[in-house]
Amino acid sequence: MTAQLFAIIAPVFIIAGFGFGWRRLHLPFDTATVTAIATNLGTPALILATLSKLEVSAEAFTEMLFATALTLVGFAVLGGLALKLARLPLRAFLTPVMMANAGNMGLPLCLFAFGQEGLSLAIAVFAVIAGYHFSFGIAVVSGQFGLRQLARTPVIYATVLGLAMVATGTELPGWIDNTLKLLGGIAIPMMLLALGVSLSGLRLASLGQAGIVAAIRLVVGLGVGLAVARLLGLSDTATGVLIIQSAMPVAVFNYLFASLYDQRPEAVAGSVLVSTAVSFLTLPFLLLLALGQF
Predict the structure, then answer these.
(1) What is the pLDDT of residues 209-219, one digit of tens each?
(2) Which residues span the domain enclosing 14?
C-alpha cells in the first residue's frame, strides 16, 4: 500500500516542485499564458478526449455531475455558517471555502488513484466547479452577477459537447481524436507546473484568517464529500473521486479573483498556501480513505 500511495502522490509533488523551483531560480515563466493555455485549450481538449472514450456510463457521469452540485450546496451552507461563526466576511471568503483545487491537484490524483475511470469522473467534478467558479463564484467576490464570463469558459462547451457525443454515440474522426489527445496531454502537467510557480510567488499574510479559511475548506470539504457519496450510494470509485475532489485545498484562482476585486487578497493567498501545505501532509490519509482502506 505504501508503494501504491507513493506512486499516486509522487508525480504531483515532483511536477509541482519543478514549477516551484523554476520560479525560485528566477527562470522565465509566464503564469498567465500557461494558465490560459491549460485552461482554455488543454483542459477542454482533455475533457473531449476523455468523454469520447468514456470509461464510465453516461448515467454514472451524470450522477457525478449531480453529486458535485450537491456538494457545492453543502459547502455554501456549512462553509457560510462557519465563516459567520468566525466573523469573517462571506464576500471575501465564501468562494475560497467552496472552490477546491479540483483541477491542478484533483485531476492528477484521481487519474493516478483510479485510472481513466477515475479521470472521467473527476472531470465531471471539475466541470461543475469551473462552471460555478466563473459564474456565481465571481458574482460573490465582485458583488455583481453576470453570465458573460461563464459564456467565455471553454470547459463548459467541451463538457456539453462531450455529453452530447456520449448520448448520441458519436465517434470522432481519427485525426480529431489524435489532436485532442495531444492537446489534452499538456493540461495536467502544465496545471501542476503553474501550481508550483504560483505557490512560490504567494506570501503568507493574515495568518489567523488564512488558517481559519483553510481549516473550513478542508474539514467541510471532506465531511460534505463523504456525506453526499453515502447519501447517493455512489460506487466505490465514484465515492473515492468525490472524496478526493471535495477535500482538495483552496484553488489558486481564488487568489486571482480576490486580487482583482480587492477582497482580502493577502488572507486568501495565505489560505491557499496553508491549505495546500496541510493537504500535502494529510494526503496519504485522504487517499487511504478514498481507496477504502479505512
Answers:
(1) 889 999 999 99
(2) 2-290
